[in-house]
Amino acid sequence: MTKRSLDAQIDAVVRVLDNQRCAAKYSRNGEFGQEHVLRLECALNTLQWVRDHTDVVRQLTVCQRASETQLSTAGEEPAS
């Protein structure tokens, strides 16, 4: 995933999160609104972590692919 794509996703989540926070204040069902805001905050934190740790994500991907390759050459199915 490219940095520009991650930044665009982060910007989109921030916009939606700001809108949801405002809507949650005036919502009759505030609990649902707060839960939605919490989920958006978690998604935002995850996207920001991935953006800030792309080198770690790449290393994990390489290790996982190498592990799957070793399993497939041994005739075993990789675990999902």
Please describe what this structure looks like.
With 80 residues, the protein is mainly α. It is 84% helix and 0% strand. α1 (3-26) runs antiparallel to α2. It is elongated, with a radius of gyration of 19 Å. The model has no long low-confidence stretch (mean pLDDT 84).
What is the β-strand count?
0
- Arithmetic mean of pLDDT: 84
Structural class: mainly alpha
Largest sheet: none
- Give the termini separation: 21 Å
Q: How helical, in percent, are the residues?
A: over 70%
Order of helices and strands: HHH
Shape: elongated
Number of helices: 3
List keywords for this structure.
about 80 residues, mainly alpha, about 85% helix, 3 helices, elongated
Summarize the entry for a quick read.
84% of the residues lie in helices and 0% in strands. With 80 residues, it is an all-alpha fold.
